[in-house]
Amino acid sequence: MSTTAIGNPSPHADAAEPTVTVTQDQVAFFRENGFLALDPITTPEEVAWLREIYDDLFERRAGREEGNQFDLGGTDEEGKQAALPQILGPARYAPELKNGLFRVNALAIARQLLGPDTQPTGDHAIFKPAGIGAPTPWHQDEAYWDPSKEYQSLSFWIPLQEATVDNGCLWFVPGSQRLEIAPHHSIGSDPRIHGLELEEGAIDTAQAVACPLLPGGATIHANRTLHYAGPNRTGIPRRALILGFGLPATERTTPRRFPWNEIKKTARAERARSAQEK
Ligand code: NI
Question: What stretches of the chain adopt beta strand conformation (E)?
Answer without folding.
Answer: 35-38, 69-71, 85-88, 119-128, 136-139, 149-150, 153-159, 170-172, 184-186, 196-198, 209-211, 218-222, 227-229, 238-246, 250-251
